[in-house]
């Protein structure tokens, strides 16, 4: 998503639209539709304070049943855009400043801010639903395997279990 400081007016303004986050999308989960955003911008002279709320739908793979499912993210973040003053090139990043522009580069791509926010929100173990029962293997009743995949091998491959069953009898 690009903010063009050339056309951001002084005072309060709102930007709404959709974006496919071109510059960072290769490293994100697959989009099912473009991200819709609403950006509230407060500009005071050269600086702009931006608060973005957005919604996106991505395709994730369930960690239990391995099926793909749509995952919706609703989130928001804030950032500050400042003008970079060419005369002081050793300007240290001051607190809370996220993006700089100058008079030759007034279009600022804030997609990396979306990227950070989305990646922080993606669950480590995505589930298609809290009650997902996992993979249905070999006609067994749905077994919840959780994250222990070795369990799967034991149940289906290891013939020594048969011997154990006989012993029990
Ligand atoms: Zn599932």
Q: What is the averaged pLDDT score?
A: 85
What is the H/E string?
EEEEEEEHHH
The molecules bound to the chains, other than polymers, are:
zinc ion
* Overall radius of gyration: 25 Å
Helix segment count?
A: 3
- Considering DSSP H and I runs of 4 or more, what fraction of the residues is helical? 10-25%
Major sheet details: 5 strands, mixed
**Uncertain parts:** none
Give a written overview of the molecule.
The chain has 169 residues and is an alpha+beta fold. The protein has two domains: 2-132, no CATH class; 133-169, no CATH class. 16% of the residues lie in helices and 38% in strands. It contains three helices and seven strands, in the order E-E-E-E-E-E-E-H-H-H. A five-stranded mixed β-sheet has the order 2-3-4-5-6. A two-stranded antiparallel ribbon has the order 1-7. A hairpin with a 2-residue loop joins strand 3 and strand 4. The longest helix is centred in the last third of the chain and has 11 residues, at 111-121. It is elongated and about 85 Å long. The mean pLDDT is 85. Bound molecules: zinc ion. Zinc ion is lined by residues 62, 64-65, 67, 127-128, 132.
């Amino acid at each position: 998503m690009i903010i063009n400081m050339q056309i951001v007016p002084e005072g309060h303004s709102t930007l709404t639209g959709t974006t496919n986050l071109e510059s960072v999308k290769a490293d994100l989960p697959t989009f099912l539709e473009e991200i819709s955003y609403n950006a509230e911008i407060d500009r005071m002279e050269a600086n702009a304070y931006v608060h973005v709320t957005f919604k996106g739908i991505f395709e994730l793979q369930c960690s239990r049943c391995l099926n793909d499912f749509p995952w919706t993210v609703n989130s928001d973040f804030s950032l500050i855009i400042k003008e970079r003053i060419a005369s002081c090139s050793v300007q240290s990043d001051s607190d809370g400043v996220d993006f700089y522009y100058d008079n030759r580069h007034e279009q600022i791509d804030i997609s990396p801010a979306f990227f950070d926010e989305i990646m922080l929100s993606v669950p480590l173990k995505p589930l298609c639903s809290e009650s997902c029962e996992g993979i249905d293997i070999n006609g067994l009743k749905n077994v919840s395997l959780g994250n222990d995949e070795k369990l799967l091998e034991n149940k289906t491959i290891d013939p020594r279990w048969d011997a154990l069953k006989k012993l029990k009898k």
